[in-house]
Amino acid sequence: MNSIIFSAGARILVALLLVFSVFMLLRGHNLPGGGFIGGLIAAVGFIVYMLACGTTQAKAALRVSPEALAMVGLLIALASGFVSILFGDPFFTGQWWWVGGDSYATAVVRPNTVLVFDVGVYLVVLGSIVSLACAFEEEV
Amino acid sequence: MSWLLVFPIAIPFATAVLAYLWRNGAEGKWISLAGSIGSLIASGLLMSAVLREGVIAGQMSNWDAPFGITLVADYLSAVMVVITAITGLATAIYAMGEIEARLERLGYHALFQVLIAGVTGAFLTGDLFNLYVWFEVMLIASFGLLVLGGSKAQLDAGIKYVALNLISTLVFLSGIGLLYGLTGTLNMADLRGAVAAVENQGLVTVIAMMFMVGFGVKAAVFPLFFWLPASYHTPSFAVSAVFAGLLTKVGVYALMRMFTLVFVGDVGFTHEILIWVSVLTMVTGVLGAAAQTDFRKILSFHIISQIGYMTLGLALFTPLALMGGVFYLVHHIIVKANLFLVAGVAQKLTGDTDLNRIGGLYKSSPWLAALFIVPAFSLAGFPPLSGFWAKYLIVMASIELQAWVITFFALLVGLLTIFSMTKIWGMAFWKPHPDGIEPVPERIPAAVRIPMMIPIVGLAAMTVGIGLFPEPFVQFAEVSAAQLLSPTDYVDTVLGVRGMAP
Amino acid sequence: MESLTAIIVGVLVAASVYLMLAPSFLRFLFGLILLSNAANLVIFASGRMTEGAPALVPEGASAPTGVVGNALPQALVLTAIVIGFGLLAFTLALAFEAYRRLRTLETEEMREAEPVEGGEETRA
């Protein structure tokens, strides 16, 4: 698709989609959103970029191979499940902490393993969808 | 305690990731080997815990059953996990010799470890929907392994394998949906009570038949086995060994679990069907093998006929029969994987697997011949090898029920198995090679030969070991059969105990 | 609602069986897609249908108020859809590769793994 309008517009669209995907990832636990849908949105961003500028450039923009990204995501998701072993809970039990403020409700930051898991899922989805799209793009 | 259930699944997954990231160098195979050893240790620990304390259950994420994800290990699950780890280790060693760098770069080791993780997960899960998910994990990995390398025959076989397995998965999934609509739960332990309480038992039987078809395709029973002989002879030998050993057994395990724990309301109907399905599976499998002349195709058909014995153990539904079924399951995984590994060495030595085009192995490689004899005769049921005890238990169970027709077929199929094994013996080992090649072991470079021979020797030693000292294994099978027939322990452990100590 | 869904499932299954009996693998694949959708609908319907009541917890509360849809089958369906999507993508890629190499998707002609007895002349 060699359209100047599309490839110029794609740059803005891709940036927006990537920011939106991170927004979706972060609001995920209590509101609609999460790692899966975030990863899908990010993957759509890369697919748009792929259509506008070609597979090679999109892969270069991703820096690492999409398969490796998915694999690292799997490892992160798996690792988040093992944190609970330190606290005597079963596998994958969510661990929540809070920093700043007086109680959980007023805390500034609330680091937790659930978000780490979601980040893993985000990477798995992003990596596998992009690699799938690359595979089809190269074949057709 | 629940952590013991997690490691046998988590270790292969982590290994898969690492093996994939280092797939381009020589590290991949060593990572895979280390991971397989780790899984074996983890499953050994699980086994010893189960032997010590009976059924172990763990609620993942601390959500109580029947709402959360439950992992359970009773005797049957534990032994299946251990045998999966053993087969995994054996094939991982074998793959170090057989699998070329080209396939390693495509991610062979990662797919293999994901397959092991999927199989282990299927054995440990206590929840039907999770069983479906593990089946899919296993399937997608097996699809990848089957077509890895992408020869024409592999692609053709892959299409058939994928198509029939996807149908079975969808039948299984619809069964899950209907069962949930009927009972409102998918936890297997919870289902036992919930299914018994359903008013319309006719519907339950219909759903039971859907499960029987879904698992039956996986287990390759008559008349749903056509994908198996169409595909198992095409991938590399390490892959077909692990397929032959493990994949169909997951189907058998799922049948055993569901038809002892959940669908026991109409045994006279469901298990009666299963009896005749089993007998037909045994007979068609062995007759199909008689018509083949390819090493691996003969073995593939024998998987089918042996599956019949295992499902027969379930279908007869007496303590002795189930005991035989469990024993058979374990014995068969070792023996069948080993036979495929031997076939791989034979192919490397003689250049083919078509029995008409090979020969001379006995003269040039007597050690390989001896190592073939052990699993082959065990498969046919010769004393004092492991297969003898397995067949003995099943036949005794049918005699106990005075089911003479079944006894007759069980013995007849054993006899015909000997016929096939002697055919392989006569054509591959005894007669001279038609092209005058002398298949001496030195035809394979030592770096390939040694890792290929280690697992063959190891598995053959296990076959002989089980055959000579069957007592502890038979006792173990007896306890697991008792657990299957009266699963109160299983149900209570899953539902009763809240958040067991980690 | 349930009976309407049941009818849709029935139509989908009938269409998929018809497609799967066709001699072309591509048609078989389309049948498979329909069957997978039918299976997903079965799960969805088995959780009972509630109209216009998503299983969301209102701000500040800790449990949903009033009658809401059953969230579990929705989660199951979502999982099944994702898995089904992955498998179908793989199958499609496999079919494409098979077509490229074997030059056919007619199942009768795909005899690479199981050659016809009697050899080449029957195939040609």
Automatic annotation (TrEMBL), chain A:
It is a multi-pass membrane protein. The keyword Transmembrane applies. Its main location: membrane. Pfam families: MnhB (PF04039). GO terms for cellular component: plasma membrane. Keywords: Cell membrane, Membrane, Transmembrane, Transmembrane helix. The chain crosses the membrane at residues 12-29, 35-56, 68-88, 114-136. Residues 6-130 form the Na+/H+ antiporter MnhB subunit-related protein domain. It is found in: Cell membrane. Signal peptide: none annotated. The keyword Membrane applies. Belongs to the CPA3 antiporters (TC 2.A.63) subunit B family. PANTHER family: NA(+)/H(+) ANTIPORTER SUBUNIT B, NA(+)_H(+) ANTIPORTER SUBUNIT B. This is Na(+)/H(+) antiporter subunit B. It comes from Rhodobaculum claviforme. The lineage of its organism: Bacteria, Pseudomonadati, Pseudomonadota, Alphaproteobacteria, Rhodobacterales.
Automatic annotation (TrEMBL), chain B:
It comes from the Bacteria. One of its GO terms (molecular function) is NADH dehydrogenase (ubiquinone) activity. One of its GO terms (biological process) is ATP synthesis coupled electron transport. The keyword Cell membrane applies. Residues 126-416 form the NADH:quinone oxidoreductase/Mrp antiporter transmembrane domain. It is a multi-pass membrane protein. Keywords: Cell membrane, Membrane, Transmembrane, Transmembrane helix. NDH-1 shuttles electrons from NADH, via FMN and iron-sulfur (Fe-S) centers, to quinones in the respiratory chain. The immediate electron acceptor for the enzyme in this species is believed to be ubiquinone. Couples the redox reaction to proton translocation (for every two electrons transferred, four hydrogen ions are translocated across the cytoplasmic membrane), and thus conserves the redox energy in a proton gradient. This is Na+/H+ antiporter subunit D. It comes from Rhodobaculum claviforme.
From TrEMBL, chain C:
It comes from Rhodobaculum claviforme. The chain crosses the membrane at residues 6-21, 28-47, 75-96. One of its GO terms (cellular component) is plasma membrane. It comes from the Bacteria. Gene3D superfamilies: 1.10.287.3510. This is Cation:proton antiporter. It is a multi-pass membrane protein. Keywords: Cell membrane, Membrane, Transmembrane, Transmembrane helix. Pfam families: Oxidored_q2. The keyword Transmembrane applies. The keyword Transcription does not apply. It is found in: Cell membrane. Belongs to the CPA3 antiporters (TC 2.A.63) subunit C family.
